[in-house]
Each structure stands twice: as structure tokens, then as C-alpha cells.
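input
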Amino acid sequence: MGKRKHVPLTSYLYLVPSLLIFAVFLFYPFFKTLYLSLFMTNKMGQAKLFVGLQNYTDLLRSASFLNSLKVTLIFVVIVVFGSMVLGLTAAVLCNRAFPGIRAFSTAYALPMAIASSSAAMIFKIMLHPAVGIVNKLLGLDINWLNDPATALYCVAILTAWLNSGINFLYFSAGLGNIDETIYERASVDGASGVQQFFSLTLPGLSPIMFYTLVVNIIQAFQSFGQIKLLTEGGPSESTNVIVYSIYRDAFFNYRFGNASAQSVILFVIIMLITLVMFRLEKKGVSY
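output
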């Protein structure tokens, strides 16, 4: 066996700038949040009284927080499923050459370039109960964003559409890596388009679908801007997802310890979901 190559100590100095950035913007806020979650704080966010796990136990007894967990779960499911279906459908439609393909591809990828705040304001006008185009086209008189029965679904649909643009690019790249000859052989064997999609396309896309699923789940849990602009967690906390609950408790109620505990719980939830998905990766992903 050959000797291990010696790496000069000075080489590690090139890592210092990136490590400093991570320390300032990632490691310090993370450990600061853990620290504050164990304390009662003043309105300036300074730790004043050590309470241990009381912030966590109070949250688990809070009807508002438990409702936030439920709302977040529903929101994430709708956003992830909707954005992946939209992205995959658009990618499959644009996978064949036809006149105007570039224009269609640009249109499908457009949500990726639109800021969530701009999309939320346009969406708010579209859903206006008096002048909104949605009610005009459907002949309805529904206050979509102020009705607890519809508000969460409206925000989730907007978020799914916003996330579909990057999914379209992911799936388009994945489709481009699938060998076209397998479709030709399948056609010769008499396989229909639907059979080819489920037997060839989906297995061929499984690695990129797994990656996209993980990314979309994390993004859905972190959605904030559109909720802030459209509903502010209402009506009746029907759209009060965990991220908005953290923002409200920290910057409106000045309960930084409680908000920090919610942040830690959100981190644990995302981490556990991600770990479970990587455990299941070998069973559902074909490389």
C-alpha cells in the first residue's frame, strides 16, 4: 500500500473564511436558540430566569401550538404533493420537441423567478371577494382568505405553484438523462404511454424525485412570506403554521424563550423526517 499523502497544515487555512461564515450565521444562532429555549426572557430577548424544559412542556400543553402542528402538517402535505405533481407534469409535457417549446418551458419555470411577496399580493387581488377574478369566473361570493375553511388551502396552493418552477427544472434534467432507446423498445413490445410512464419514467426519475421530495418538505416547513402577507396566521389560527407562530411569539408577544423552544421543535421534526426518508431511500430509489 502506498503512503498516505501528507496535507500541509496551511491548506486548512483556506477553510477558515467559510467556517467563520458558518459560525456567525449558522452555529451561533443555533446554539443561541437552544440556550434561550431554556430561559424566560425579557422584551429585549435577554435570558433572565432559567426554567429548564418548562417552555417545552408549556408548548405541548398549548392548544394553539398543537393546532399549529396540525395546520403545518396539512400545509406541508398539500404544498409538497401539489408542487411535485405540477413540476413533474410540466416537465413531461415539455420533454418532447414541438413548436414553441422554449416559450412553454419559460412559462413553467417562471414561478421560480417570482418573489413570494409579489405573488402573494397578486394572489390576494385575485381572491378578493368583490373584485377578484376567481369569484368572477366561478360566479361565487366567497371571502377565500378570511374563511377558516378555505384560507389554508389558498395559501398552500399558492406556495405549491411557487415551488413548482424549480421542480420543473429538476424533473426536466432527470428526464434528459433517461435513455430514449428504452422507450423505443417498450413501444415495439406494445407498451402504452401510461405503462411507459409508470414502468420506465418514474423509476428513472426516482433519484431526482427523492432529492426533490426532501428539498420540498424542508422548504414547505419554512414557508413564511406568503402567510405573513395573505393571512397573518388567521383567520382563527387556521393558517398559523409553526414558522409564523415563532415569528408572532418572538416579535409580537416578546416571548423569545417560547419562540426558541418552538424553533428547536421544528428543527427536530424536520431532522426526524429527513432521517426517516434517507432510511427509506434504498427501498424506493433505483440508481
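quick obs: The radius of gyration is 24 Å.
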